[in-house]
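new request in #modeling-help
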Amino acid sequence: MSNLAVFVSGKGSNFNAILSSLKDSSNKIEIKVIAADKECPAIKIARKNNIPVYFISLKSKDGFVNYNELIKIFMDLDINLIVLAGFLKKIPDNFVELYFNKIINIHPALLPSFGGKGMYGMNVHRAVFNSSAQVSGATVHFVNKKYDDGKIIAQRTVSISDVKTPEEIAERVLKIEHQLLPFVIKKFTENKIFIENNRVYIHD
Ligand code: GRF
């Protein structure tokens, strides 16, 4: 059984794509909990699906838990895979260490290009557009102690040779994200993801 924790900060379309993918999967995967840094549309999706939500903050704030409290919650839920789905905050180093190679992130570009601090949402697609790149895509990678720097697990490309705006890139890449993230989660659940010589291999 894969017990997932999903971190969100925004619309929750990736979270929703994971939920939809679970409807056809042989319920070996369950989203046990949502962590969010703020109130956002993704929370509505969690509430509608009766998934517990915890608001997470580094500072002590009413109605929020800190990362040590979140670790206790995750231990009690036997969380074994953590998915950052549009989460914009950096995960603290001790949390990354504790869940080493168990935290994955979806990035809306082909890392290692167009990644790093500040590269999120439309910032990414504007940079790709202005670079004159002819392809873009999405990346799922392990989370380490630096933004968008962990080992790449999977990537999928899309042609952007005919786009006229960064928004068109965003739209095409988001569709890719919604396929790629559930694909990687399923492979995790099937124990088909391996690391060798600093590269990640996904077995059929
Ligand atoms: C997505 O483009 C994702 O790649 C990035 O945040 C954006 C919004 O995601 N990390 P969502 O709609 O909140 O899932």
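bot summary: The two ends are 19 Å apart (CA to CA).
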